[in-house]
Task: structure prediction
Amino acid sequence: MTPVLDGVAALTATLEQQRDTLASMLELARREERAIVGGDVETLTVLTDEREQLLELMAALESERMTALVAIAAASGGEPASLTLTGVAEIAGAAGDALAFVGRDLRERAVAVRDANARNALLLRTSRDIVDRWLQYLRSLMTSVLYDADGRASEAGRRSQLDRSA
Result:
């Protein structure tokens, strides 16, 4: 093999690992969605730890990807910053077909993970907004209770506030 083809093989293998990691992240996002909808805080805590591990793996794989791109650039006389998957696939000939396929698949999975994370963020924001509204309502109940001269809560004040909420 030539140095370029060695680099393309390493890059393809790294992108395959990134693709598989993104598949795991997508499954994790789906489990997070179920936990959010079900209000399962314990599961969300466990999933957060899993997410951190997957993000660490992606960071390590990104380092490997950059190493492979530097090797390809050095072997082909290009600049690593200017290399694209399409460009590498073109100079790699037949080996570039597998690289191009993995690259497209990787992008599709990255978009799916991004969309799932956005959906989960919306669910969390909506949940937080509902909790905030309930807290405001409960605080208003606490502050609107009337007290009589002996410091006891007035029944009239309590009843009128509850009547308005029903």
